[in-house]
Amino acid sequence: MSSSPSLNTWSDALSGFSIGWFPLGLVIVAAIPLVFIALYALTYGVYGERKISAFMQDRLGPMEVGFWGILQTLADILKLLQKEDIVPTAADKFLFVVGPGILFVGSFLAFAVLPFGPAFIGADLNVGLFYAVGIVALEVVGILAAGWGSNNKWALYGAVRSVAQIVSYEIPASIALLCAAMLAGTLSMQQITLMQAGPGGFMHWFLFTNPIAWLPFLIYFISSLAETNRAPFDIPEAESELVAGYFTEYSGMKFAVIFLAEYGSMFMVSAIISIAFLGGWTSPLPNIGGLELNTMTSGPVWGAFWIIMKGFFFIFVQMWLRWTLPRLRVDQLMYLCWKVLTPFSLIAFVLTAVWVINH
Amino acid sequence: MEEAANQMSPAVRESKTAYDNIRERFGDAISEFDANPTMPFFEVLDASRWVDIALYMRDNSLLQFNYLACLSGVDYPEEQKVGIVCNFECIGKYTHRIAVKVKCQRDGGSIPSVSCVWHTANWHEREAYDMYGMVFEGHPDLRRILCPEDWTGYPLRKDYQVQETYHGIKVPY
Amino acid sequence: MQELGKVESNSTRIIRQDDKRVTIEKDLDTEHMVLSMGPQHPSTHGVLRLECITDGEVVVEAEPYLGYLHRCFEKHCEKIDYPAIVPYTDRMDYLAGMNSELAYCITVEKLLDIEIPRRVEFIRVIVSELNRIASHLVAIGTYAIDLGAFTPFLFCFRDREHIMNLLEWISGARMLYNYIWIGGLAYDVPADFKKRVDEFVTYFRPKAVELYKLLTENEIFVKRTYDIGIMPADVAINYGWSGPMLRGSGVKWDLRRNDPYSIYPELDFEVPVPDGKFSVVGDCLSRHLVRALEMEESLRIIEQCLAKMPEEPNFNSRALIPKKIRPKAGEVYGRAENPRGELGYYIVSDGKSTSPIRCKARSSCFVNLSAMKDLSKGQLIPDLVAIIGSIDIVLGEVDR
User: Mind listing the pLDDT tens digit for each residue in A235-247?
Assistant: First the structure.
């Protein structure tokens, strides 16, 4: 495996382009993921979900604002911005205000260590994966602050359920990611990706090089659904039971912030799973003889493209599951975590260790 | 008498057989059988024996009226009484049905509750109390059910006058 | 082992191991919490309020409070003429207006003792069975949404839309029809009626199978409803349950069979009862299953009616409607099988007035809901939601 991937020419030229001392090309490349995050998370994640659910449910979805309702989310955000910022009288005002902030920050902090291409990563920490797993736990604080601060029984139920769920599911999720770290021999996100790069495209990915990797892959995917409170594990916000869970009392922009944080963490876990098992920004296309597909589709811009595509794929699967499956019950959720996923993740851990020693 | 029985439809004849059984056991506590074709019924004259009759009707192996289909409160202004009409039926062994009427004094009257015999009676008796104001003795939880707790009067009585205001809201419009 | 009971507080238990040893278990001392579920709560299907006393996630007791939608139906009836009551019956069970009308009309017809044209009977059965399918679709769809599955809900509503369109085409209204009148119908059916109903039946059959596969056979759905909220048959009868609720408890009781009215005796259909293989008899899943299977039976009924319905050109559906409806003195209790159970009317006529002196509606939801307090004891909050959903209440009918 090559330690520095060869960049293809136009992509190389773009990142090397500079006016005087100012590396304009690099800035543009670096801006792609940032612009994407803002665009995706603020508008098109929500729009995509609405359109996908509409497609699955035989209806049209938003159609009024803009062509095919493309501007619907912007209109929604405008509406939410204009709404009165209500803080319930009985609420703990400090926690109530701080909660959504912590949530939002928590879900977006992990983006710092996500490599969006060979040339762009916010901070290539040598404990990147560990940081990403750890920072997600910050969301728990935000949820608890929001739920407790609302001084609403439903919100409290939602918050307590959520904390129990996220803390429990961190264990199988972390062990599953540890398997990937073991395979790569490093915790740096960029290094993990580089370990999976090569002329064979998808054949170098951990999911395909290792016969055991599908087990931690599945475990992490299921746990990530629970960690982001997505169906079938959307128990903390189970609208038919708990009205809206921990954000029952929120309205206006605070509600929007919670909403966007959810979409942010959806993309975050999708990116993490792509990096850990599906080669992150590396191209899936292999070089076949003289047809150098892999080389042609590698580079900073392509890198960003691939990881976003992989992220989108997992987000699509998340949405697909959400609009198909009913919701589990609290005890069934805990059963799944402690009696199914955790033992299996430990098995995966041991098997991976054995594999790594023998190879 | 025989001739009258022959003119009855099969359903009414079944009810008559069931009635005869109850009559044999309770004698004068219940009235004559009213063999009308739409809803054959008898009346409980001695309301204090109503629970005994109810238990007998439910548990006697030849009656087995295990299903209380409906319990309606009724106002009888000309008799100065209010009462209930219960429609019984057997699910399972038999196909017979019968209706039973129980009446009590309009003001301060009471009827023994049969909610311990049929759970159905629980809410229906609350509703009858809510609308007609008769008290069901021995009811586990006799409160208004459809009207607010602090409503005055019993709306389905024929002489009901609606209150002027309720918590400052004008009622008749 | 025997539990001696609770002492001091609800956190302390004394358990007798054998004659000499007694263990005292002490949990963390926690308080019960009163949780008011409703009247504005997504899963109470309207304005029902449950006052739950909860111990963590466990419901210790839930007391239902009704009356938020009380519109004095029975008081109204005493002031208006017999035919004018029909629109009010629509507004009771607004999801199955045709069935409510049918129950009321056959009750009054019983009191009047009049003959109904055969074609009218067929049309009545077709529209009420269509309405039954529509009502079950809402029941199944909202049940899915209670358990967190959105898509089946919209599938149900998509198919229900076809029925709504059909009924709108027949009667001019989508939910509150005022179509079945005492002694006849408001209008005869339009010319292409048979064709379009037939189209609907062929369209809906595969959709019902799809719905069954998507929802009823879903592992998570089964997990959420299997063995939850069990109601034994004898208790169900004692509670006066009827319709799909009673059949879910394994009692084969359907008024269309057991107290036949209209032309049901001529029709061939099954009364589905759970056999205990797929579900525990009497649990939430059984009740759901009965509704899912009943839709197919309704389709069969509609098909037979379409085949048997007599064609009469220039048929006047109002021809036999009495000019002035004034039944002779007497009282009657008439009922019909509503999608939610037995809908009965107790009507008293004094023979002089053109309006009843007493008209009591025996609402199936009201009776079915009365078991809520017993069913909810010791259940988890998510199970409580599953149980309310399986009862399938329409508050318009509960509160009347």
Answer: 777 666 777 778 8
The number of domains in chain A is 1
Q: How many domains does chain C divide into?
A: 2
Give the pLDDT confidence of A304-344 residue by residue, as tens digits. 778 888 888 888 888 888 888 888 888 888 888 889 899 99
- Domain with A189, as residue range(s), is 87-358
Cα A246 from Cα A178, distance rounded (Å): 31
Taking CB atoms and an 8 Å limit, are C218 and A323 in contact across chains? Answer: no
Q: Does C299 touch chain A (CB under 8 A)?
A: no
Chain C residues in contact with A50 (beta carbon < 8 A): none
- Which tokens is C282 given? 């009497």
Q: Is the pLDDT of residue A16 over 70?
A: no
ipTM here? 0.87
**Contact assessment for residue B119 and residue B109, using Cβ atoms and an 8 Å cutoff:** no
Q: Taking CB atoms and an 8 Å cutoff, what residues of chain C touch B66?
A: 234, 237-238
Chains within contact range of chain C (3+ C-beta pairs < 8 Å): A, B
Over residues C84-115, the pLDDT tens digits come to 898 888 888 888 889 999 999 989 888 888 88
Compute the average pLDDT of residues C33-45.
81
Q: Domain map of chain B by residue range?
A: 2-170
**Torsional class of A201: left (φ above 0), alpha (ψ -120 to 50), beta (otherwise):** left
C253 touches chain B (CB under 8 A): yes
Closest partner residue to A329 (CB to CB) among C144, C155, C380 is: C380
Residue B24 CB-half CA count within 13 A: 10
Q: What are phi and psi of C2, to 5 degrees?
A: -145, 135
> What is the domain extent for residue C13?
1-30
- The rounded radius of gyration (Å) of the Cα atoms in chain B is 18
Looking at the fold, whether C8 and C152 belong to one and the same domain comes out as no
Tens digit of pLDDT for each residue in C114-158? 888 888 888 889 999 999 999 999 999 989 888 888 888 888 998
Choose the mutation target among C358, C375, C393, C397 for the interface with B, i.e. most B CBs under 10 Å. Answer: C358
- Say yes or no: C149 and C267 in one domain: yes
Write down the pLDDT at residue B167: 85
Q: Answer yes or no: is C7 within a domain.
A: yes
Query: Does the residue A55 lie in any domain?
Result: no
What DSSP assignment string belongs to C200-253?
HHHHHHHHHHHHIIIIIT-HHHHHHHTT-S---HHHHHHTT--HHHHHHTT---
Task: Tell me how far apart the alpha carbons of residues A69 and A250 are, in angstroms, rounded to a whole number.
Answer: 26
C67 and B CB contact within 8 Å: yes
Same domain, C208 and C295: yes
What confidence tens digit (pLDDT) does each residue in C306-326 have?
Answer: 888 888 777 777 777 878 888
Residue C351, chain B, CB below 8 Å: the answer is: no
Q: Quick check: helix, strand or coil at residue A265? A: helix
Question: How many Cβ pairs closer than 8 A exist between chain A and C?
Answer: 78
Question: Which of C74, C237, C371 is facing B66, going by the closest CB pair?
Answer: C237
Q: How far apart are the first and last CA of chain C?
A: 49
pLDDT at C365 over 60: yes
Q: What is the CATH number of domain B2-170?
A: 3.30.460.80
Asked if the C-beta of C203 comes within 8 angstroms of chain A's C-beta atoms, the answer is no
* Cα–Cα dist C316/C314, whole Å: 6
**Domain contains C64:** no
Residue A21 clears pLDDT 80, i.e. is over it: no
Confidence band of A34 (pLDDT split at 50, 70, 90): low
**For residues C148 and A240, is the Cβ–Cβ distance under 8 A?**
yes
In a domain, A29, yes or no: no
Model confidence at B5, in pLDDT bands (50, 70, 90)? low
Phi and psi, residue A324, nearest 5° = -110, -40
| pLDDT over threshold 60, residue A2 | no
Is A243 within the bounds of a domain? Answer: yes
Residues 140-179 of C with CB under 8 A from B: none
